[in-house]
Every structure is written in C-alpha cells, then in structure tokens.
Write a structure and sequence with these properties.
4-stranded mixed sheet; 244 residues; alpha+beta
Length: 244
C-alpha cells in the first residue's frame, strides 16, 4: 500500500476519534445513553489538563449520543429534575434518526474506506466517500428541520452542517455534535433522579460526592458557591442515609 494511501487510511479513524473527544469543565458531566434512556454519568478521565478533564465516548456507539449537564452554582438556578428528565427524553427522540445516519457514515468512513485503501480498492473508497457525503447532507438537513426540537440556533445548525460536509469523518459524530450544543443545568443532588438504573444510582452518588469535594477545594470558604456545594454534599449524604 503506497505511503499516501496508508496515511489516509490511518488519518480517517484518527480524525474521527479526535473529533469525538472534548473537555469537561469543573461542574460539567456527561450522561451516556442507551435506546433513548440515560445509563451512566461521567466526569471525564481522572487527570486534568488546564483545569479540564478529557472525555472520549465509546467510538463504536455513535448512534447513542451523550448529554451534557452542569450543576447549579447558586441556589435556585437549576431546573427541576423531572423537567430535565422530560426534556432529555424529547431530545433523544428528536436526535435518534440523526444518530442512525451518523452511524452509517461512521461505518463507511471509519471501517469500509480504510479497508478499501488497504486492499487497493479505489472505486470502493470513492463510493464510500460519496455515499457518506450524501448521507451527511441528509442528516444535516434533518437537523435543520428539527432545529427547534433540538434547541439549536441557526448558527449552530450552519456550523454543524459545514463541519460534517467539509470533514467527512466528523459526519460520524453528527448526533453527538448536535447533543453537545445542549446543556442542562440542575442541582448536583438531583442528578441521580434523572432515571438511571437503580443498581447504578449508588455509584453515581459516590462519583458526584467525589467531584463536588474536589471542586470545593478550589472555592473560597466564604463564597456563595462554596456554600452551595456544601449543601449539595449534605443532600447526597442524607439521601444515602435515607435509603438505609
């Protein structure tokens, strides 16, 4: 396989993985989803870069977008957990067709196209790229049609459209990109009430406590934010004791 073709075969999945990754600020988390339901909560990797934690979703599941949440830093600033839960459900329903389109794009550009280059099948490579381009256009059109349901601004739709068409490996992350634009804000102690599996709620509460305790160390003790975090820690501890 010529060097240029080998480089391109490696570059396609590399660009996809790079585009999948993003950084979470202090107070932000990612909710993974499965079949329209919330599954797990992640604050990113354990180490930090410039105060942010890198997060890379499962590269084999582009059809299951992640949801971004952040906890409120002032009393009364967040939404009720039941309202957020309903909004998330509507969002997942609206983005589901986009997710299946992006997954097909990922299959063509991340798997079929590199294999075609490795085997010297130029026609198959070109066909994969053309079909992916057409599907990407269809997915972007669907995003534009459902813009209000997805709570996107016209500029967000345009930027998503441009990236997906200019950089075809990014088309595999179309559903993720759409969901990343939306962030929900609610109290940290309300996050476990978003409908997670009962067996995972304890783990989520423990992760929240660790994240809150870590964030609390960077806040002045006499600040309102420090008091809010302390209150959320007390609520999480109280919820644990209530179960026992």
């Amino acid at each position: 396989m010529p060097t240029s073709e080998g480089f391109l075969a490696l570059a396609l999945p590399a660009v996809y993985l790079f585009d999948s990754a993003h950084f979470l600020c202090v107070g932000e988390a990612v909710i993974s989803t499965r079949t329209g339901l919330v599954r797990g909560l992640s604050f990113g990797w354990s180490f930090e870069l410039g105060g942010r934690r890198p997060y890379v979703p499962n590269p084999f599941t582009p059809f299951w977008p992640e949801l971004r949440v952040q906890w409120a830093t002032s009393n009364g600033a967040g939404s009720a957990s039941e309202d957020v839960k309903a909004e998330m459900s509507r969002h997942l329903g609206a983005v589901r067709p986009v997710g299946w389109i992006s997954s097909v794009c990922g299959f063509l550009l991340i798997l079929v196209a590199p294999l075609a280059l490795a085997l010297g099948q130029q026609r198959l490579f070109v066909a994969s790229a053309v079909v992916c381009f057409l599907l990407s256009g269809a997915g972007c059109t669907l995003v534009g049609i459902r813009r209000k349901d997805l709570d996107l601004t016209p500029w967000q739709v345009c930027s998503t459209f441009i990236v997906a068409l200019v950089c075809l490996p990014c088309a595999a992350n179309l559903a993720r990109a759409v969901s990343t634009h939306r962030r929900w804000t609610l109290a940290a102690s309300d996050l476990p009430a978003l409908g997670f599996d009962a067996n995972g709620v304890a783990t989520i509460r423990q992760s929240l406590k660790e994240a809150l305790a870590s964030a609390q160390r960077y806040l002045p003790e006499d600040s309102a934010e420090h008091e809010v975090v302390s209150e959320q820690l007390r609520k999480l501890a109280g919820a644990r004791h209530d179960r026992h």
